[in-house]
Design goal:
By secondary structure, this protein is mainly beta. It has helices spanning about 5-15, 200-210; strands at about 40-45, 55-60, 65-75, 80-85, 95-100, 105, 120, 125-130, 140, 150-155, 165, 185, 195-200, 220-225.
Length: about 230
């Protein structure tokens, strides 16, 4: 095999989770640039930027090694995935990157055993997505006076999709208008999402019971390779 081909083959093996000859396979988090500094991590991986489906896996760091705790099929935005820093609102794309998970919420009560901060959805619970509002990309209960209902999500109206969910900290700490709002990990519906990551209802419940605030869980979203490869985050 030519040297250049050998190098490309080695890179491909690393991205797919295989190890160079003679070494044990490296779990995905061990190959990432950053995992958030905690001992819990969720990875959401799509095959390529245009994909609308992939896999969510949750991991624990035990005795210095990342161990898989669970996995489930996932759906992404209807228009695929895009670099988080370049994302624009209302594009139906899922932002790639590494993000915190500020809190969980749901129309239903938190699953038994949940220790993560959990906010129950009520009739007057909204997520403001109005770019002209001071409440942009925030839970608003009741809806803020400067936030238009037509530009926001009335959380209770999402039914089974928001039975249980986790807020993904995309554009959350210091919101940038028109970059995007209301990106969650939630229960999957019939197809792709408007930009969120979705998993089956049972997987969402398992994730909420698994997440421990003191373990500082994060979520990394990316593709198997290329500029938005999850290993870059």
């Amino acid at each position: 095999m030519r040297p250049g081909v050998l190098a490309l083959a080695s890179v491909s093996l690393l991205l797919l989770g295989a190890a160079p000859a003679g070494g044990p396979p490296q779990p995905l988090p061990a190959r990432m640039a950053d995992t958030g500094g905690g001992s819990q991590l969720i990875t959401a991986v799509a095959p390529k930027p245009g994909s609308t489906s992939g896999t969510v896996t949750w991991w624990d760091r035990v005795d210095g090694r990342w161990v898989r705790a669970g996995s489930a099929p996932a759906r992404f935005g209807a228009k695929g995935l895009v670099e988080g820093a370049k994302r624009k609102q209302s594009t139906n794309t899922t932002p790639t990157g590494l993000y915190g998970l500020p809190y969980a919420f749901g129309i239903k009560a938190a699953p038994s055993g949940t220790t993560y901060k959990y906010r129950r959805v009520h009739q007057d619970s909204w997520w403001c997505q109005d770019n002209d509002s001071r409440a942009y990309n925030r839970w608003s209960e009741p809806l803020a006076r400067d936030c238009r209902a037509a530009e926001s999500e009335h959380l209770v109206s999402y039914g089974a999709l928001y039975a249980h969910a986790l807020v993904i900290g995309f554009n959350y700490e210091h919101p940038v208008q028109r970059r995007g709002a209301g990106i969650f990990l939630h229960v999957k519906g019939r197809g792709a999402t408007a930009g969120c990551v979705s998993v089956p209802a049972d997987a969402m419940r398992r994730i909420l019971k698994w997440a421990v605030p003191g373990h500082r869980p994060h979520i990394a979203i990316g593709t198997a390779s290329g500029p938005t490869a999850i290993t870059r985050y």
